[in-house]
């Protein structure tokens, strides 16, 4: 492994897949630290325009001639070994590392590196915590897996020793990180194209927790039984939080206003530290906020400041994002793509003003849909109408084992449900059937949000 502290000989770094949300953020950090950056991606984007403005040399398409004698090549998870640029780097004898390893090396430059891990809620929690630190004038460097309006995108370069990033468990990427504070929000069955079972997943999270140094902290959700299984006998300090369990940090007297936004009292080791109000809906976001509150408290931010700053956060792109209204019905988009996330979002919606809920769900990856098919079928109980569209393949190839129509058939036992594959047809169907005060909720990690845009433009 290359030691980031000793890499003064590295001048030019080439990133394959530079347009991705995480890779582009890494490129910006490296540019800030004075490196010459080049990179390639399959299609142009606003993100790439921003990198060009900051001095990166960007190529569209992957071609061996793009590899112009860099000192190091970094590649994203989507870039396989047979990629033409990776092959050229190998031919030239140029060292190569993946995105997670580079992110781990960057983290070594910061004394207070915070890594937010968990099967669900990473982006929301990272965003909440980032804004608390930013408004508390700690000037953090922030890498978040979504578009955060308050920082103008997915990254903000700070001047302090505070660094915040999401820690993805896919292919055990987060085991290459170097956190001073690690957060574990929850642990569920997911990414079963890589992990064998829940025991394999829990073992990876345990190893992540073991990365934290003795003087560091693990902030862990005590409500989650799988998380409880993995934080015993660690060398670092453990701070637990929760709603249901007797944790170090616990929310009490939870109430919801007419918009479905929760407020609550927080106790830290038995002492009431204040009243907190969120501007995002859902009980699951109370837990996400508790992780942020606990971490900010560790960093010395006063409860009064935390409460003031946490209320400012109004969400992130594709996390219960209000897109607009059509015929008096609200159109909302959400990134939920796992049964646990779907149930949490639909539960949050129950406290949000509405007449009926129309849920349009796009399954994400064949392996996830196949492995969790029956869990998915049970997750739409709180929707009035369900539309299932085709599976978004992402990184996978269709082997013919699973189809969206199979999920729709299973859900039919419980709900008004239909399988529809054409986005234009879905938008037309919704337009013809929604009523004033209805809520249309598009859900999934693919491009299902386009349906909301089509529906809004339909008017």
Automatic annotation (TrEMBL):
Keyword terms: ATP-binding, Cell cycle, Cell division, Cell shape, Cell wall biogenesis/degradation, Cytoplasm, Ligase, Nucleotide-binding, Peptidoglycan synthesis
Q: Has the keyword Ligase been applied to this entry? A: yes
Taking every annotated instance into account, which residue ranges of this chain make up the domain Mur ligase central? 116-296
Q: In which pathway does it act?
A: Cell wall biogenesis; peptidoglycan biosynthesis
The similarity comment for this entry is: Belongs to the MurCDEF family.
Task: Give the range the annotation lists for the signal sequence.
Answer: none
The UniProt entry, under NCBIfam families, shows: murC
Where does this polypeptide localize? Cytoplasm
Q: State its Enzyme Commission number(s).
A: 6.3.2.8
- Name its species: Alkaliphilus hydrothermalis
**Binding residue positions for ATP:** 118-124
Q: Which GO terms describe its molecular function?
A: UDP-N-acetylmuramate-L-alanine ligase activity
This protein's record includes keyword Cell wall biogenesis/degradation: yes
Which residues does the UniProt record annotate as the domain Mur ligase C-terminal? 318-446
The free-text function statement in the UniProt record for this protein reads: Cell wall formation.
The chain positions of domain Mur ligase N-terminal catalytic read 12-110
Coiled-coil positions are none
Q: What is the lineage of its organism?
A: Bacteria, Bacillati, Bacillota, Clostridia, Peptostreptococcales
What Pfam family is a match for this entry?
Answer: Mur_ligase_C
Which reaction equations make up its catalytic activity? UDP-N-acetyl-alpha-D-muramate + L-alanine + ATP = UDP-N-acetyl-alpha-D-muramoyl-L-alanine + ADP + phosphate + H(+)
Q: What is its main location?
A: cytoplasm
Listed name of the protein: UDP-N-acetylmuramate--L-alanine ligase
Q: InterPro entries from the entry?
A: Mur-like_cat_sf, Mur_ligase_C, Mur_ligase_C_dom_sf, Mur_ligase_cen, Mur_ligase_N, MurCDEF_pg_biosynth, UDP-N-AcMur_Ala_ligase_MurC
């Amino acid at each position: 492994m290359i030691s980031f502290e000793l890499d003064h000989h590295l001048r030019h770094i080439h990133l394959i897949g530079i347009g991705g949300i995480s890779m582009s953020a890494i490129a910006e950090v490296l540019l800030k630290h004075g490196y010459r950056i080049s990179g390639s991606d399959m299609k142009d984007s606003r993100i790439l325009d921003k990198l060009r403005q900051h001095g990166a040399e960007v190529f569209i398409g992957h071609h061996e001639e793009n590899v112009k004698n860099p000192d190091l090549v970094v590649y994203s998870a989507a870039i396989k070994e047979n990629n033409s640029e990776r092959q050229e780097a190998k031919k030239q004898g140029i060292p190569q590392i993946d995105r997670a390893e580079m992110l781990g090396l960057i983290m070594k430059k910061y004394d207070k590196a915070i890594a937010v891990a968990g099967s669900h809620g990473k982006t929301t929690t990272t965003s909440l915590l980032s804004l608390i630190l930013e408004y508390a004038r700690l000037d953090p460097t922030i890498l978040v897996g979504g578009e955060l309006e308050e920082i103008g995108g997915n990254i903000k370069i700070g001047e302090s020793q505070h660094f915040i990033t999401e820690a993805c468990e896919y292919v055990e990427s987060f085991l290459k990180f170097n956190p001073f504070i690690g957060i574990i929000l929850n642990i569920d069955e997911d990414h079963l194209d890589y992990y064998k079972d829940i025991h394999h997943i829990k073992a990876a999270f345990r190893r992540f927790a073991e990365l934290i140094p003795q003087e560091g902290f693990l902030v862990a959700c005590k409500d989650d039984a799988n998380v409880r299984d993995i934080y015993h006998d660690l060398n670092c300090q453990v701070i637990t939080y929760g709603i249901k369990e007797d944790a170090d940090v616990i929310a009490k007297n939870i109430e919801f206003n007419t918009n479905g936004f929760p407020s609550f009292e927080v106790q830290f080791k038995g002492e009431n530290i204040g009243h907190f109000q969120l501007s995002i809906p859902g009980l699951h976001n109370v837990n996400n906020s508790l992780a942020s509150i606990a971490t900010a408290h560790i960093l010395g931010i006063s409860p009064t400041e935390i409460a003031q700053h946490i209320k400012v956060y109004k969400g992130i792109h594709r996390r219960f994002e209000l897109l607009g209204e059509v015929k008096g019905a609200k159109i909302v988009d959400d990134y939920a793509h796992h049964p646990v996330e779907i149930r949490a979002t639909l539960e949050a919606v129950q406290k949000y003003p509405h007449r009926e809920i129309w849920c349009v769900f796009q399954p994400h990856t064949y392996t996830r849909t196949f492995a969790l098919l029956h869990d998915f079928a049970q997750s739409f109980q709180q929707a009035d109408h369900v539309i299932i569209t085709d599976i978004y393949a992402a990184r996978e190839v269709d082997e013919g084992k699973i189809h969206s129509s199979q999920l729709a058939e299973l859900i039919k036992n419980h709900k008004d449900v239909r399988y529809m594959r054409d986005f234009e047809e879905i938008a037309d169907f919704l337009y013809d059937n929604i009523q004033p005060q209805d809520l249309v909720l598009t859900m999934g990690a693919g491009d299902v949000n386009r349906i909301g845009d089509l529906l809004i433009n339909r008017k």
